[in-house]
Structure formats: C-alpha cells, structure tokens
Amino acid sequence: MMENVDAWAKESNVLLPILLSIVAAVIFWLVFSYIPERKRRNKLRPIVELALFDTYKQLFSLFDLIMRHAGNSPSFYQSEIRAGKLTEDDIALGLQNKCLNESYLYDPNVKKALLVVGEEILDRTLALDELANKVLSFHTYATAEELVLLEQIREKIRVYHFGERHVNKNCGTIINGQVLRPVDPSISYRHGNFYEIYQLFCKLQILVLDHRPLDRDRFIYKMQSLYYSGQYRLCAKLVQSEGKRFEKDSTLYRNYWALSERGKGRLKEFYKIIEETYKSRPYGGALVSSRSTFKDLLGDNKLMEILAQFHSSEEISAMRQSVQQDKVHKETFENANQALQKYYMEKRSGANAA
Known about the structure:
Elements: H1 2-66, H2 78-83, H3 88-94, E1 98-99, E2 115-116, H4 118-137, H5 144-157, H6 164-167, E3 173-175, E4 178-180, H7 191-208, H8 216-228, H9 232-242, H10 250-263, H11 267-278, H12 291-294, H13 301-310, H14 313-353
Parallel strand pairs: 1-2
Antiparallel strand pairs: 3-4
Helix pairs in contact: 1-4, 1-7, 3-7, 4-5, 5-7, 8-9, 8-10, 9-10, 10-11, 11-13
C-alpha cells in the first residue's frame, strides 16, 4: 500500500505541473483569445450578413429592371424571380427592349419601344462590387461558401465592362466617312451572362433567407420565395411560427398562408382564412391591393361569395378590371418583345445577305 502511495506521489511531481500548465493555458486562451474574439464576431458578423442581404436585394432589383415593361414600373416577373423559375429564354425576351444609352435609339422603327437602362445597370453593378469588397474586408467573419459565391457574382458582373465611359459611349463607329451601327441595338447579347448571374442569385437567396432571427424583410421575402417555388407546407409553417411578430403585415402574410393551404389541397382552411382576413376590410376595402392574391382565382364562385359579404360589387369589379389590365399589359409586353426579336433577326439576315 505504501509503495503505491509513494509511486503516485512521484508521478504527481511530474504530471501535476503539466496538468496545471494545460489548465492555465486553456484559461488564458479563453480569457484573452476566445471570449474577446467571440464578442468581436458577434459585433461584426451582422455587418457581413447585412452586406449579403443588400447584395441579394441589389440582384433582385437588377433582374426586375431587365424584365421591366416600362420605365419606373415593377416587372410582371417578380414571382418568377423569387421562385427561381426565371429561364434564360425569359431573360432573352426581357432584354429585347433594353438598350445601353440614347445613341442606340437610331432606328425609327423601334425607337419608341426601347428603354435606356445602361446607367441603372451600372449603378447596380457598382453597388454589387462595393458590397463584395465590404464582405471581403470582413472575410474572417464570413463563411467559405459566402466568399466563393460573392466572388463568383463579382466575376460574372465584370464579364462585360460596364464602366461609365462604356455606358455613355456612342454606338456609332465612323469608317471611311460612313457611320456604322450595330444591327441589334438591344443588350440581348448579355442574356447568357445574366442567366448565370441569376443562378448565383438563387443560391444567395437560400443563404440570406436562412438567417435567424428573421427580420421583417427577410420574413416577407422568404415567405414569397417558398410560396412561389411551390413549397406550400414550409410557407404555411413559416407564417404560423413567425407571422405574429409582424402584425402590421398581417393581411399580406395571411394571404400567403391561405394560398399555401389551397396549394396543399385544404380548400376549407383556405376559405376560412380568407373570410377571417377580409371581414375587417383591410386596405380600406380596396381589393385592388390584393389582386396578386386573387388574380388566378376569379373563377372561384365560393371565394367571390365570401368577398361579397364584406365588399361592394364596385370594389370586386375594380379588382377584376385591375387583374385583367395587368394581364393585358404583360401579354402586350411579351408580344412586343417577340416582335422586336423577329425584327432584329430579319435585319441581321438582310445585313448578311448584303
């Protein structure tokens, strides 16, 4: 017994100092490294997250711009953009009526149909580049996935040099006293590049909308993204778990909740939510404000009966007219851009034949 005690005492003379050194080192690391760094991360990580979210919003604004049918009007493709359903053909069609600057308005046949968007694209491009630099300056607090994705986005937006000099450059080139201009004045040549950027936007959307806790903007964008991509169960779950935090937007999120229940095949629940929501006549009874909710449901007689309990025939009629007007404007935009595409192709064929 005494021999064992003596052996332990001898070993303790060696092991105890080592153990104490390890404990002291761990305490030193916690106090002077880990805890200060954790505090610093908690303060600086939100800067990275905000920059990523601003990047997401700038990209959304970019795609809304290139799909726009008229100046200063939101596009008819916002739901497709958020759902990840915008195709390369959609983008190519959207770009048919967009040109770089006013010097491209040389063809009297299409002059009035074109929108000058060069400077707006430049503004968004510069903002995206600045936001990428901001995140890179705080790279310690960003994940590898975030850094790689941002660098890919920046690389793609720089494929075409959209500096101020290029945006404002006259499209005409004088050769032997003759002014030569492009056959196609639009920026449709960028459709492949924009589609690649859009695919990166969809990846970024998943990252930024997975933020916890959700603020109001992220909640709304995530709700819309889930609904328009057909993830009805997740959309309804999100609204039920987070919606009460944003009571000022209750009509909006209850609309998506109702539509999600309908998407899941639960019509009874859909009608119940709609009745509970619209009996208080939200938006001052202006159903026009909810036209995006009901635009595909105007043939649902039971829905119309519920709305008629709380709204006048004039209010329902105004909504119907607004939905029809939006539909006509979208069809007009698509037909006009298809005509432009055909016109450019015929011009190109004629130029090649000459």
